[in-house]
Fold this protein.
Amino acid sequence: MEKQILHVDVNNAFLSWTAVEMLKKGNNIDIRDIPAIIGGDETKRSGIVLAKSMKAKECGIRTGEPIYHAKIKCPSIRIFTSNYKIYRQYSDSLYKLLSNYTDKIERYSIDECFLDMTNYLCGRNLIDVAKEISVRIKKELKFTVNIGVAHNKLLAKMASDFQKPDKVHILYEEDIISKMWPLPVSELFMLGRKTVPKLYNMRIKTIGDLAKSDKFMLIKKFGKHGLKMWEYANGIDDSEVIYQPEKPKSVSNEATLPINVIKTEKLEEILLTLSEQVTFRLRKHKMVGEVVAVQLRTDEFKDTIHQRKLGFTTDNTSQVYEIAKSLLHEFYKDGTPIRLVGLRVGNLTEKDQEQLSFFTSEKNNKQKELDKTLDNIKNKYGYQSITRASEINIKKMIKTDKL
DNA sequence: TCTGGGGTCCTAGGACCC
DNA sequence: TCTGGGGTCCTAGGACCC
């Protein structure tokens, strides 16, 4: 049976939510109506545009570009900092509203949801429901969304990306040729900055060109990805709306450093802070991991990752830190300027089926107790409430506002 | 005043085993 | 003295998403 799918996408989510919050706090300008962006901190080298208003977009400002570019394009631009705590609240309120319409909701990201309406229409028309949802969000939550209406997730997602803001777009099978095929191939989901130029070289410029290309030639050239892009261009997608939240497969934290670091000891200190963050989040998820990976980015933007499979699982701060440290020693040469350090724990499983290390010792048990005690304090008084003395300067360099 | 942070999935190549 | 091939596990690297 044909599926009935909606894709709900918040217009300029971070900027809109910041705007609504400011209005709620008594501010009298709506930053959606002026050239404005949400951006990081330039002095900390995290100065990129995270979201923009329509007026900022008109100036040619693009998401992801450096703030200093934005300032050149629009000298009067107003810049606001992000606040993930608030964004999560708005995201939750959206989810709650959507829950009135179906149980099958996939939270695809903080500002996007897929709804499987197949058995929830009760005789109503899918398009009417989409329009009602759109109106209710605007009225009750004070921000706007785009909604894509289709018979699969891919087409619903493509549709919600058509003209913005505050629109409902329909993309049924019979609309593919007229509405999707004329678009540049770069607009197709899963085609990014590396693949698009290759397609251009093959004279494939529009989604229609791609759809009409030879499937086997694409497979030969791009492997599995080639098949996917051909299917997507033809509107083919049988993936399900994943409405039961999935367990994470890895947990990572990374930090761009305000200045380049060239000393192993400094990098170790940063890894300690990252180990605390990552394992804190692991324990919150009640997950343990079997692989530890350290990522370094040089000032020339060259990334290297070094990882190790442990043969046991862990969520323990000092254990992860010790492994991270030894990985660092294996691949970092003192003196190379480093601008970003990352730490990832992967191959996660649920804690109750934790594989115990053969060497589970008195010492490990004590470390576990320590983690638990510190977690309790952080959960009660905030992540920042307790910190090792040695880390005070490091913490200033690394953001923790998402924890 | 260059370029965030957090994820997932795929592929290539080497090691090792039979 | 020279030479297999299949399977699995592991690491590194890269592409994509929001």
Q: What stands out?
A: Chain A has a mean pLDDT of 94.
